[in-house]
Amino acid sequence: MEKQNLILAFESSCDETSVAVIRNGHEILSNVIATQINSHKRFGGVVPEVASRHHIEQITICIESALQEADVTYEDLDAVAVTYGPGLVGALLVGVNAAKTVAYAHHLPLIPVNHMAGHIYAARFVKPFEFPMMALLVSGGHTELVYMQADGQFEIIGETRDDAAGEAYDKIGRVLGVPYPAGKVIDEMAHQGQDTFNFPRAMIDEDNYDFSFSGLKSAFINTVHHADQIGETLDHNNLAASFQASVVDVLTSKTLRVLKQYPVKQLVLAGGVAANHGLRERLQEVLPQEFPEMELIMAPLKLCGDNGAMIGAAGYVQYQHQQFGDAALNADPSLEFDWMPGMLK
Ligand code: KG4
Ligand code: ZN
Question: Is the pLDDT of residue 315 over 90?
Fold first, then answer.
């Protein structure tokens, strides 16, 4: 029988407490996610102190449930993986300390994982990666095009110069009275409306791979405020559709541009905004037309947002390279997105 490498994986970088049990890096035995979104909604965003408190309340319950659902005990585990950055320091510390405690108590190696690497490896549950690979990583805090020659080798080829795509969704959502996080609802509204406002597509024709969403956000907010001032009522679904059309146009055209310069075998779509139906549909439509040989791997909808399973999948790569942390591991809120440790440059 194939050896079962079982990793207990922790994620607590923002507003989701999650613990998962992953087998051999690509099989989910359990993936327990306790979301705190309802507590943050009334504040219009994540309140760090509230987040830390919720993580503390939830973490041991999540560990118990993850082990129980996976039908394993601590004795069956081979390693413990944990997000140690980037994210909210107080939130990260809860996961890091829980992981260190389990690792110490049960004599297990500890694997420190970068949250962004985790998002990309959410796509590993769909199928094995083939390199070279490009990832379009779109989340609440990041919008990046990441080139990978091999597992764990991340090169940022393009990124946002201001707001992340998810952040822009959340900010324009607030103007329309949509509670935080607004992405999913704006996506649904966009499907009911038409692109009638023709908002700017920033940097779309520029010969680089960077993004900018703050101009779009301002154009959107100005349009809504101006209408308010003159007592005009705008169709919210059309506003959402117009905003989404701009975001999807820019993300898709920059991705196609980078793929011309960097021929790859696979394109991975990952991060919270990868759940966007408009973006998924557009990539599924244009990629086979432009690059018939290239494979599109989209992170499963359930694994686009923050979760422990993706941390276990990324952690498994480090596990194979025996790259472990120790009891001195600390949370690093502004952790850079670099190559995984142990990958020689
Ligand atoms: O990756 P994630 O869970 O957290 C970070 O690491 O940042 O991403 C959360 C972001 C939020 O901004 C949320 O509004 C956005 O993902 N999001 C979406 C959709 N679902 C979630 N944005 C657009 N369309 C969606 N369907
Ligand atoms: Zn995330």
Answer: yes
Q: Provide the 3-class DSSP secondary structure of residue 29.
A: strand
- How much is the average pLDDT of 287-306? 98
Determine the structural domain holding residue 115 and report its residue range.
6-121+303-320
Residue from 1, 101, 16 nearest 310 by CA: 16
Q: How far apart are CA 336 and CA 324, in angstroms?
A: 18
CA distance 63 to 12: 12
Nearest to 111 by CA among 83, 141, 77: 83
Probe residue for ligand 1, chosen from 142, 273, 304 as the CB with the greatest number of ligand atoms within 8 Å: 273
pLDDT digits (tens, 9 = 90+) for 243-275: 999 999 999 999 999 999 999 999 999 999 999
Residue nearest to atom 1 of ligand 1 (CA): 272
Per-residue pLDDT of 148-166, as tens digits, reads: 999 999 999 999 999 999 9
Is residue 337 a part of any domain in this protein? no
Q: For the purposes of burial, counting CB atoms within 10 Å of the CB of 285, is it exposed (0-12), middle (13-18) or buried (19 or more)?
A: exposed
- What's the domain count of the chain? 2
Residue nearest to atom 8 of ligand 1 (CA): 272
Position 199: which residue type? F
Index of the ligand 1 atom closest to the CA of residue 141: 7
Q: 1 in a domain, yes or no?
A: no
Q: Considering the chain, what is the average pLDDT of its residues?
A: 96
Pair (312, 197) in one structural domain: no
Q: Using a 6 Å CB cutoff, which residues line ligand 1?
A: 14, 139-141, 166, 169-170, 181-184, 187, 271-273, 275-276, 305-306
Distance 314 CA to ligand 2 centre (A): 13
100 and 156 both lie in a single domain: no
| 229 pLDDT above the threshold of 90 | yes
What per-residue confidence (pLDDT) applies to 1? 56
